[in-house]
Write a structure and sequence with these properties.
29% of the residues lie in helices and 25% in strands. With 249 residues, the chain is of the alpha+beta class. The longest helix is centred in the N-terminal third of the chain and has 20 residues, at 30-49.
Length: 249
């Protein structure tokens, strides 16, 4: 069961890494929330325009249209980790962030109302898809030529608490320093703190295949679903794929 006694704000072992609730960000740290939204959008734009595959999405596309977008996406039960540096004037400037929330299956009408590409990908809740001959994340094309569903048994264990990892970003100037791994490890540690029983947790992440699939595969995630968006969708010059990945820890 999820631990509901979490404070709105808490320092973590790293002196510049802090945990926030969306309520705390919205009510007590409006400037930080503004800077965080800008950071996430910057990382999103740079990543999708500097890919070796070409312009996956135009620089003008935004991951978060407004500050309220992150608050709504993470929700009251989720949390946001922010790694900051302090300016000479004493202001805290975020350089990395990661967030997570208890996983929620979207219903049909919720999916249809969402405009964000990543959120649109999430499917209506369905019975687990099992294939005895496949247990290592093999993907089966269901015939549409567009959407592919999982055929492994990851989704079968519905008794486990299930969490979704959301925006995990590092400012381009601070990448390749191990910060992404630090943020990820802190994120998992916080989820474990909130879910002391049982000891195993089901993790889900939706990300762009061309940019982040390999990163999460190295960390033990299995690709359980994939959707292809063709050239022109969202202004893409080459098209791209969005994958859903899962892991039990």
């Amino acid at each position: 069961m999820t631990n509901t006694s979490t404070p709105n704000e808490r320092s973590l072992p790293s002196s510049n890494l802090r945990l926030y609730s969306t309520k705390s960000l919205q009510e007590d740290h409006a400037d930080l929330l503004f800077s965080l939204t800008a950071l996430i959008n910057l990382c999103y734009s740079v990543g999708h325009t500097s890919s070796p595959y070409g312009i996956l999405l135009p620089y003008s596309s935004k991951r978060l249209p407004t500050r309220a977008s992150l608050v709504g996406e993470v929700g009251e039960e989720g949390f946001v980790l922010i790694l900051s540096i302090e300016t000479l004037e004493g202001a805290q400037v975020p350089i990395a962030s990661a967030s997570a929330k208890p996983f929620k299956e979207l219903g049909y009408h919720e999916v249809m109302q969402e405009s964000e590409l990543l959120t649109n990908f999430k499917r209506k809740a369905a019975a687990p898809v099992l294939d005895p001959a496949s247990s290592s994340g093999v993907i089966k094309d269901l015939g549409s030529g567009d959407i592919r569903e999982p055929v492994n048994a990851l989704r079968a264990d519905t008794a486990l608490p299930k969490w979704e990892i959301l925006c995990n970003v590092v400012h381009p100037d601070y990448q390749k320093r191990g910060i992404a791994d630090e943020m990820y490890n802190a994120l998992i540690a916080e989820i474990r703190r909130r879910e002391p029983e049982p000891k195993r947790i089901h993790l889900v992440i939706t990300t762009m295949k061309e940019l982040r699939e390999a990163y999460y595969q190295k960390r033990g995630y299995v690709t359980t679903g994939e959707k292809r968006f063709g050239k022109g969708v969202g202004g893409s010059e080459v098209g791209f794929s969005v994958v859903e990945m899962e892991k039990i820890v």
